[in-house]
Amino acid sequence: MPPRKALLIVHKSTSDPGRVGRLLSERNYELDIRCPNLGVPLPSRMAGHDAVVIFGGPMSANDGRDMPGIGAELDFIPVALESGKPFLGICLGAQLLAKALGARVTKHPEGLAEIGYSRIAPTTEGMAYLDGPMMVYEWHREGFDLPRGATLLAEGTVFPNQFFRYGDHAFGMQFHPEVTGEKIEQWTLRSAERLKLPGAQPREAHLSGFAQYDGTINRWIQCFMDRLFDSVPGENEHLESAALSPTSA
């Protein structure tokens, strides 16, 4: 099979696609990594790409007027969705997807952050993607309302909307399945001031959580990517096969 090309949108010069990028490469995708915040343009159509992933970042999906890069992403997302090709938004990427679909992106009403490992649980519809609760890695202070026409797949406690599907091939995850142990080390050192926010967990909890939960996350995201990025638009409607597993509470 000839290589396919995935457009990976990042938000800082130091960003990297982590585990998700590695898994795409293993699935015969060429990675086209672009950072609109640095002035790198996004394509006007999807003819040259077979999939899109938008990663996280410290900015807000509400920064469209102040940050041209965020505005460019919001303009691009409908183009990507119209193509029917696989689309994944991670953290800020999920918030951008929700906002592009007309939903609100807001801070927690009590000013809480969700930084560290937290438990998500599948909805009834989400049992096709998660066969039970799972601990996932979070790093955010804003969340999103569920867009009209979207299906909620997993819920959390602090920020209820954690994982959703829009159409057959577009997904948004509030959590970070791409994060490696090295990246957690870097984030908790370079952004140590964020660990003082209400609701944030101490660095030790991040490191111990990685040792305890990452094996499950790694197996889960590999299964999910097999189903999303190896699928062909129009086939495997809603990716409805056996629930992705394993999971852990």
Task: Give keywords.
two-stranded antiparallel ribbon, 249 residues, single chain, nine-stranded mixed beta sheet, Rossmann fold, alpha/beta
Can you describe this structure in just a few lines?
29% of the residues lie in helices and 23% in strands. The chain has 5 helices and 11 strands.
Task: Summarize the structure in words.
- The chain contains 5 helices and 11 strands; from the N terminus they run βαββαβαβββββββαα.
- The protein is an alpha/beta fold and about 250 residues long.
- The chain has one domain (about 5-230): Class I glutamine amidotransferase (GATase) domain (Rossmann fold), CATH 3.40.50.880.
- The strands form 2 sheets. It has a 9-stranded mixed sheet with strand order 2-1-3-4-11-10-9-6-7, with helices on both faces.
- Strand 3, helix 2 and strand 4 form a beta-alpha-beta unit.
Cα-based radius of gyration, to the nearest Å:
17 Å
Largest sheet: 9 strands, mixed
Share of helix among residues? 25-40%
Main-sheet strand order equals 2-1-3-4-11-10-9-6-7
Straight-line N-to-C gap: 38 Å
CATH topology: Rossmann fold
Report the uncertain regions: 232-243
Number of strands: 11
Tally of discrete structural domains: 1
CATH architecture: 3-Layer(aba) Sandwich
Name of the CATH homologous superfamily = Class I glutamine amidotransferase (GATase) domain
Q: How large is the count of helical segments?
A: 5
Strand content is: 15-25%
Quaternary state of the chains:
single chain
Listing every helix as H and every strand as E from the N terminus to the C terminus, the arrangement reads: EHEEHEHEEEEEEEHH
Mean pLDDT: 92
- Shape verdict: globular
In terms of structural class, how would the helical and strand content be classed? Answer: alpha/beta
CATH C-level: Alpha Beta
